[in-house]
Write a structure and sequence with these properties.
The protein is of the alpha/beta class. It is built from 4 helices and 4 strands; from the N terminus they run βαβαβαβα. It has a 4-stranded parallel beta sheet.
Length: about 90
C-alpha cells in the first residue's frame, strides 16, 4: 500500500507524520510504503498513492481526488493514526 503524508511544506510535519504512519502501519501488520508531499504537489502524488493522510484544513484543498483521504488531527498520536488507517483500509 502506498501512503502519502501531506503537510503545507512537505518537509517537517509530513516527515513526523510519515514516521508515525510507518509505526502505526507496522503495528497493524500493513505492508506500507510511506512518502511525503507538500500541498502543492499532493494532487500529483495522489495518482500513485492508495491513501493520503493529512490535516482537516489541507484535506479541504484536496477534495475531488479519487484517492481516499484520511484526516488526522494530531500527527503525533499514533493511536489516532492507527484508527484512521483501520477505517480507510478495511
Amino acid at each position: 500500500m502506498n501512503i502519502t503524508c501531506v503537510c503545507g511544506m512537505g518537509i517537517g510535519t509530513s516527515m513526523l507524520l510519515k514516521m508515525n504512519v510507518e509505526q502505526a502501519a507496522s503495528s497493524l501488520g500493513l505492508d506500507a510504503e510511506v512518502s511525503t508531499a507538500d500541498i502543492g504537489t499532493a494532487k500529483g502524488a495522489a495518482q500513485s498513492a492508495d491513501l493520503i493522510i493529512t490535516s482537516a484544513e489541507l484535506a479541504e484543498e484536496l477534495t475531488g481526488l479519487s484517492t481516499p483521504i484520511a484526516v488526522v488531527h494530531n500527527f503525533t498520536d499514533v493511536s489516532e493514526i492507527e484508527a484512521a488507517l483501520k477505517e480507510k483500509t478495511q
